[in-house]
Amino acid sequence: MDSTDEILHVFPPLFRVFKDGRLERLSGNDTVPASVDQTTGVRSKDVTINANSGVSARLYVPKSIDTDQKLPLVVYFHGGAFVVDTAFSPLYHTHLNNLAAEANMVIVSVDYRRVPEHPLPIAYEDSWDAVQWIASHSSRNGQEPWINIYADFQSVFFGGDSAGANIAHNMAVRAGSDNPDGLIVSGIVLVHPFFWAKEAGVGQLIHPESRAFAEKLWLSVNPCSSGLDDPLISPDPRKFSLGCKRVIIFVADRELLKHWGLYYKELLEQIGWGGKVQVVETKDVDHIFHIYDPTTDKAKSLVKLVASFVNEDKTV
User: Fold this and answer.
1) Does residue 61 surpass a pLDDT of 70?
2) Which residues have C-beta within 8 Å of that of residue 118, sequence separation ≥ 6?
3) How many CB atoms lie within 10 A of CB 199?
4) pTM (whole model) above 0.90
5) More confident position, 236 or 34
6) Distance CA 211, CA 196 (A)
7) What is the pLDDT of residues 97-110, one digit of tens each?
8) How far apart are CA 89 and CA 78, in angstroms?
9) Close Cβ partners of 6 (under 8 Å, ≥ 6 residues apart)
10) How does residue 246 score in pLDDT terms, banded at 50, 70 and 90?
11) Which of 17, 60, 120, 202 could join 9 via S-S bond, C-beta 3.0 to 4.6 A?
């Protein structure tokens, strides 16, 4: 075997890393076009956010909207360990069609640049670029008519799953410090967030082998990072200002990442954050189960809970 083909790390079913530094995607390469969804009637289209960097997004709006009606806006960041899948992947297209229909909301699904062509922290910078682009529509004269016409800028949420939930959290932190004009972030939706830490209150629950695996994964996508003490992967609410007042965290019973989601909630409560945080634990499921099979009762329940969270202010 050629030494350049020697495999250094494998992260099934996502990607593998070769000894020479190359990274090969093992899944998440398929795409589907924007369309009118035959099941939900949700409309979608693709837009360019930054022609220079290539950052783009897929927009979703529900089937029937009154032009005078303003709907909650969710800025969504897809998962895939920062490596696989895009905003145009069939699994995410199906999920966001279902979510837009259930919650009656506008969704901007951000297509940030991925590892290995663009190592972290580029995905975070691309995502912030998208947030600022969305904020530029708050005066109703931005580039994209769907956002100008339909989005309620008093009801904006950041959301995502896995690596995308990590991005959503980090965008809320940046919004808390940078305060983009015209954008008020109401809350964040973190589904099975990719958080970890070298040392934390839940450290005794995690096997050293799992911790080593997490660190290999993180350093594979962010080679310049200091490791699992990096605040991008190890959020400590005592050290940042969260730019929203409501947080919902979904955790999966069968995965180790759930411990960090639970710990994140505990820290927010301990510091007297002042907002509302809740955790929803789904029993007997694995990581992002709702993306892989949206037809199950548990997946449908998760979508309904996200919809309820986003629309909470409208029902009280």
Assistant:
1) yes
2) none
3) 9
4) yes
5) 34
6) 8
7) 999 999 999 999 99
8) 9
9) 18, 19, 20
10) very high
11) 17
| pLDDT tens column, 259-279 | 899 989 988 998 888 899 999
Residue 2 parent element (H or E):
none
How high is the pLDDT of residue 316?
44
**Nearest-angstrom CA–CA distance, 125 and 16:** 25
Q: Which residues of 99-136 are buried (b: 16+ CB within 10 A; e: fewer)?
A: bbbbbbbbbbbbbbbbbbebbbbbbbebbbbbbbbbbb
DSSP string, 74-120: EEEE--STTTS--TT-HHHHHHHHHHHHHHT-EEEEEE---TTTS-T
Token pair listed for 219: 């350093």
Q: Calculate the alpha carbon distances from 221 to 147, 213, 224, 248 in Å.
A: 32, 13, 9, 26
Chain segment 163-215, per-residue pLDDT in tens:
999 999 999 999 988 877 778 899 999 999 999 876 655 655 567 788 888 88
The better pLDDT of the pair 4, 306 is held by 306
307: tokens are 């919809």
Alpha-carbon gap, residue 180 to 164, rounded angstroms? 20
Query: What is the rounded CA–CA span in Å between residue 281 and residue 262?
Result: 9
Instruction: Tell me, rounded to whole angstroms, the distance of Cα 4 from its chain centroid.
Output: 34
First to last CA, the chain: 65
Give the position of tokens 């400590």.
236
Crossing angle (nearest 10°) for helices 90-103 and 297-310: 50
